[in-house]
Amino acid sequence: MKYDCIVIGKGPAGITAAIYLKRYGYTPLVLAKDGGALERVSDIENYYGIPHITGPELLKAGVEQASGLGIRIVEEEVLDLTKEEHFLVTTNAATYEAKTVVLACGTSRNRYAKADAFEGVSYCATCDGFFYRKKKIALIGNGNYMAHECSVLENICKDITIFTDGLPLEAEVSPTIPVVLDSIEKINGDGKIQSIEAGGKTYPIDGAFIAIGKASGFTLAKHLGIELNGSNIVVDSTYMTNIDGLFSCGDSIGGLLQVSKAVGEGANCASFISKYLKKNNL
Amino acid sequence: MKYDCIVIGKGPAGITAAIYLKRYGYTPLVLAKDGGALERVSDIENYYGIPHITGPELLKAGVEQASGLGIRIVEEEVLDLTKEEHFLVTTNAATYEAKTVVLACGTSRNRYAKADAFEGVSYCATCDGFFYRKKKIALIGNGNYMAHECSVLENICKDITIFTDGLPLEAEVSPTIPVVLDSIEKINGDGKIQSIEAGGKTYPIDGAFIAIGKASGFTLAKHLGIELNGSNIVVDSTYMTNIDGLFSCGDSIGGLLQVSKAVGEGANCASFISKYLKKNNL
Description:
By secondary structure, chain A is an alpha/beta fold. Chain A has helices at 12-23, 55-68, 113-116, 125-128, 144-154, 217-224, 259-279; strands spanning 2-8, 28-31, 72-74, 78-83, 87-91, 95-103, 121-122, 136-140, 159-163, 179-180, 184-190, 192-198, 201-204, 207-210, 228-229, 232-233, 246-248. In chain A, helix 1 (12-23) runs parallel beside helix 7. The longest helix of chain A has 21 residues, at 259-279.
């Protein structure tokens, strides 16, 4: 089955986009493991029409509303996004195909700022693994997304060390790969990254791959070579990124990080996707 | 009392803008006689977080939410908007002063398209009355807004005929001014407007003033010389019109005529007004 649109994210932007697409007669699929930033918001009093609600309550209401309209919502963790003839979205459980994709998965909380100052730091194993074929690399992360990146790197690189940065290892990786559970104390380098200090030890490396937390709009954008402005995905006036057929809205594209704005953009984005699908006879 | 902002309109865009302004620490005033297009919507199922609601219910919920946050909402009919040192908004009951204004009063249902083809047609007595000092003019309309325009024209023009276009006269005008209650059958002219046919009679005129229904964003825009694109108010990326300090959002600026979009724009617009007030030390 090929979906008209896969919406990654089940917050206000994603659900609104899905509702509008459904109403336009298209078949959207919503993929998301959790509700992002809204899950941690206790009081919302500035969303029109609802005097008071908590973030989790609003998320739940949105998901139920979309389900009630017949929209399929799958609670799987998105690990990868690629484009061949169509878009392929890989989760921890399956791969889904779609004509268009909306990245509506919120702000990028898994950027690793202290590594960003150095060269030799990548957010995409598939894109950059090849450059480190015979090199010593660090893979920073502790969950499914890290494990996905690890499985890609294992086929390319010989010498991988996983750094969970003080977090427990929450995914299965090959037992031959060393895992450092200590917090990262310092990253050293001279332009190019050279070593990581953790648990009182210094680990010399040639490169580092960042796969912290869940794959976010930011990391998925990195996988596809989407234009970014800082951590924000850059879109044109139709909410399309520089990748044809790939759209983004809500917190992912920056601006006011508010439910109101996300909802407005979700509606507008869906209307432009509808026009895009028609224009391209998809 | 000078308000930080007067929001004209109490629909989703206006109320959201007012809620955000209040939350930013400003004192907004909302002025509106009715809820516009939403009052006639029976089913809304695509507004995030609310599975089903009617337009009037949503309007009521929004007004109560804003009132609950301490926002002043005055149910008066806006008749005029001018700018001297600050903005002055005239209603049927009073004049209010503000540092900024948001036009969030919906689409322009009171444009009179069949007259627009001719020269000699105006939407603003204050702006254009002077050009018709010794001329025969028609004033088209039947309510308070028409009566307001009539009071302006009376001081300038000698020969005024009111055309209600088949509607009952619903406002008080000077008893010396003739009122034609018949439907307008035809408007004649050769480039410039020349006569109006109604009730089987032909009334020769030199110019016509349109004041149908209530003053809308469109008509208020005409009063201030705001740039329009068709009936839509033109705004920049900060939702400001070509008049400094005058903003607009929601249906008034065109695009998707949806609650979702209006709410998103209301939030964004308020954030830009907050920046504008700070930047200009207002």
